[in-house]
Amino acid sequence: MNSNREKSKNKFVVGRITNYLPSMLIAISLILVSVPLRAEDGQYVKTAPIRTEPFETRIRTFGVLAPSVEEMSFEIPGRIERFLVDEGDRVTKGQRLAVLDSQDAEDGLRKARSNLDNAQRILDRMLKLHETGSIQTSQLDDIQAQYDQARIAFEQAELNVARCEMVAPSNGLILQQNIDSRTSVQPGQAVYVFQSDDEQWVTKVHLTDKNALLMSGGAEAEITFTPYPNDVFKGQVTKVAKVANPSDGLYTVEVAISTQGLELRPGMIAEVDLIKASDEDYSIVPFGALLDVRGIRGMVYVVDSGASIAREQNVTINSIRGTEVSVLEDLSGFAEVITHGHHGLKDQASIIVTQ
Q: For an engineered disulfide with 196, which of 129, 172, 235, 290 has Cβ 3.0 to 4.6 Å away?
C-alpha cells in the first residue's frame, strides 16, 4: 500500500514539473537574453563620428521690446510759441513740430545783416585804396579779418532763426510729448520722443560675464514673439555694457531687431536666441559619449580609423549645445567616439562596432 502511495506522489510531482516546464524555459531564456552578449574578440559598442568645425553657441534669454527713439529738442534757448503736432501723430521728413518765439533771433539777424553790410562797404573801399597803394597790405588784412568776423556772425544769426523751428528728421511717429505748455526751454531739453520709420526696434537682455564676452564680437540673434509664433525675426547685438550692473552683476546687451514688415509694439516680450560661431575649430562629440563628468572635465572612449580598440581620452568641455558638446582637445586624429556600450569598458579594450 505504501508503495502505491509513493508512486502516486511521484506521478503528482512529475506532473507539476511538466506543467511548469514551459514557464521555466521562458524565464531562463529571458535571463540569458538580458545578459550582455560578448564575443571572444571584443565588447559590442555603438559609435558616432567625431566632427571638427567651428562650434555655434546659442544663448537663450528674454527681453522687453522697445523702439529705437530720438529725443527731439531745440538747439538754442527760448520760449515755445506753438506746438504743431501732438503725441501719436505721424509726421513726414521736414515737417515742423514746434516753434520758439523768434523775435530775439530775428532782431539779432537784422543787426548782424546791418553789420555785415557795413563791413562789406568798408572792405570794398579799402580794396580800392590798396590798389592805388594808399594803404599797406597789413591794413587791408585787418579790414578783411573784420569782414570775416561779421560774415560769421551773420551766418550764426541766420542759423539761430532756423533753429527756432523744430522739424522732423525723417518720416516717423511722435511717441511722446514731454512739454505741453508755452514755457522756456534750454538747449537739449527733450520736447518730443520721436521714432523714425527707418529705425529698428531694440530689446535689452542681461548676460553673465562669460556670455557677454562671447557675444561682444557682434553676434547674430533670432527673436520670436507670442503674437507671431511661426515667424523668426532677425537681429544683431549692437551694444554690450563694459561694466556689470551693480545690483545683479549681469551685463546689459542691446539687440537690434528687424520688423520684417510686421507690426511690433513697445512692451512685447521677446524670446531671444543669441548666436555666435567660434573663431576656431573644435572637436564635436555627442553628449552621450561623455563619461565621468566633473565640472568641465570628462572622459570619452575614441576609436582609431579601421581599428577595434577603445582608447580612453580625457577631455575638457568648451560648450554644450543640445545633444552636442565641443571639447578643447583636438580629437581629429580619431575617427569615431563610443556612444553606447561603455559599461565595463577599459582602456585598450577590444571592441566590436554594431549599428
A: 172
Distances in Å between the Cα of 271 and the Cα atoms of 213, 255, 322 are: 20, 12, 18
Contact partners, residue 6, CB within 8 Å, separation at least 6: none
Fold classified for 73-195: OB fold (Dihydrolipoamide Acetyltransferase, E2P) (2.40.50)
Topology of domain 38-55+280-353, per CATH?
Answer: 2.40.420
pLDDT in tens, 75-121: 999 999 999 999 989 999 999 999 999 999 999 999 999 999 999 99
Would you state the cell numbers that stand for residue 149, as one nine-digit string? 568776423
Beta carbons of 264 and 306 less than 8 angstroms apart: no
203 and 64 Cβ atoms separated by less than 8 Å: yes
CA pair distance 161, 183, nearest whole angstrom: 18
Could you give phi then psi for residue 218, rounded to 5 degrees? 100, 75
Q: Which residue has the cell 505741453?
A: 180
Q: Which CATH superfamily does the domain covering 59-68+199-278 fall into?
A: Efflux pump adaptor protein, beta barrel domain (2.40.30.170)
What residue segments make up the domains of the chain, in order of their start?
38-55+280-353, 59-68+199-278, 73-195
Cβ-contact 290, 284 below 8 angstroms: no
CA dist., res. 339 & res. 305, Å (int): 16
Summarised one tens digit per residue, pLDDT across range 293-308 is 888 899 999 997 677 8
Tens digits of residue pLDDT in 137-175: 999 999 999 999 999 999 999 999 999 999 999 888 898
